[in-house]
Amino acid sequence: MAENVNKTEGVRAKQLPEHGPIDENGREILLSLKDVDITFGKGEDAVKAVQDASFDIYRGETFSLVGESGSGKTTIGRAVIRVNPLAAGEIDYKGVKISGKIPHSLDREVIRNIQMVFQDPAASLNERATVDYIISEGLYNFHLFENEADRVKKVENMIEAVGLLPEHLTRYPHEFSGGQRQRIGIARAMVMEPELVVADEPISALDVSIRAQVLNLMKKFQREKNLTYLFIAHDLSVVRFISDRIGVIYKGRIVEIASSEELFNFPLHPYTRSLISAIPIPDPKLEKHKVLFTYDPSVHDYSVDKPEFVCIGNDHWVYGNKKEIEEYKKIREAGVPLKAITIADQVHNEEHIDAQEELEEEKFLQTPVHDTGSVWYTILSFFLPVLGIIAGLIFKHFKHLRNFRACKKGAIAGFICIAVIIVIFLLLLVLAVI
Question: Could you point out which of 121, 129, 422, 424 has its C-alpha 20 to 30 Å from the C-alpha of 199?
Answer without folding.
Answer: 129
